[in-house]
Automatic annotation (TrEMBL):
Keywords, comma-separated and alphabetical: ATP-binding, Nucleotide-binding, Transport
PROSITE patterns: ABC_TRANSPORTER_1 (PS00211), ABC_TRANSPORTER_2 (PS50893)
Pfam families, sorted: ABC_tran (PF00005)
The organism's place on the tree of life at top rank: Bacteria
KW ATP-binding (keyword) present: yes
Signal peptide annotation: none
Keyword Protein transport on entry: no
Full protein name: ABC transporter ATP-binding protein
Stored CDD domains: ABC_MJ0796_LolCDE_FtsE
Length: 250
């Protein structure tokens, strides 16, 4: 599908058009996404919610270029990424997209700074010290660059993972249950950090979560059920999200 003039004028950091994703074939096929169209406006924070198995992670992975839709298209700005060959997609993904997961996935034997540098190094780039220090500063870890992950708290380790995701200055940060392994207070610190990145730096952020309180940090909540977007809430409170979610049985 060609990007229309209206889309270009409105500007989206990332968008999905009529996404379908099926896993397996024949009678064993699972239809994880059944025609999902979403747009992430620049400088906004979107939460993706829904019952277990509703397609949240699949949608997030397709939007982040980590999974390919069976049908439909994914765009980062004016580039249709769902059609790119694997190598080109991997290159573009590294510069345009940052990802954070529930597990921090840090290398324990290397320093905080080396962890943040790692994606660039793996791509054969020379580390940019200023960028690394800037990313650590943004997540409140200035001065910790020589520490090892094991010397940091869980919340601080997740901050390192966020710095690693932000060091390439991506257009979109995707976070999948980023507070799932943290206690409530630490989780709120991480959510406040993501929120600050949107408000202060104009970062675009999309977060999969089961937690209505976490979704309350977002500008908008998309509710998925059975592979479709079935509801959307703007500027949601945790109570509103919890109520809509319970209607979906999530
Ligand atoms: N690699 C895969 N192979 C086969 N089926 C898959 C695969 N990944 C996801 N699915 C199926 O697709 C559907 C959607 O999965 P997905 O992980 O996107 O849901 P979710 O809403 O993120 O769930 P949860 O909240 O439990 O993490 C589920 O039925 C799941 O079992």
């Amino acid at each position: 599908m060609a990007e229309t003039a209206t889309d270009t004028a409105r500007g989206t950091a990332a968008r999905a058009h009529e996404l379908h994703r099926e896993y397996g074939r024949g009678t064993a096929a699972v239809r994880a996404l059944r025609g999902v169209s979403v747009a992430l406006a620049p400088g906004t924070f979107t939460a993706v919610m829904g019952p277990s198995g509703s397609g949240k992670t699949t949608l997030s992975h397709c939007l982040a270029g980590m999974d390919r839709p069976t049908r439909g298209s994914v765009w980062w700005g004016g580039t249709e990424v769902s059609r790119l060959p694997e190598r080109r997609l991997a290159e573009l993904r590294r510069s345009r997209v940052g990802v954070v997961f529930q597990a921090f996935n840090l290398m324990p034997a290397t320093t905080v700074a080396q962890n943040v540098e790692l994606p660039g190094r793996l791509a054969g780039e020379r580390p940019d010290r200023d960028r690394v220090l800037d990313a650590l500063d943004r997540v409140g870890l200035a001065g910790r660059e020589r520490h090892r992950p094991g010397q940091l708290s869980g919340g601080q380790q997740q901050r390192v993972a966020i710095a690693r995701a932000l060091v390439s200055r991506p257009q979109v940060l995707f976070a999948d249950e980023p507070t799932g392994a943290l206690d409530q207070a630490t989780g709120h610190e991480i959510l406040a950090l993501l929120r600050a990145g949107v408000d202060r730096d104009g970062q675009t952020c999309a977060m999969v979560t089961h937690d209505p309180v976490a979704a309350g940090y977002a500008d908008r909540v998309l509710l998925l059920a059975d592979g479709l977007v079935v509801d959307e809430l703007d500027r949601p409170t945790a109570a509103q999200v919890g109520e809509r979610l319970s209607r979906l049985g999530g």
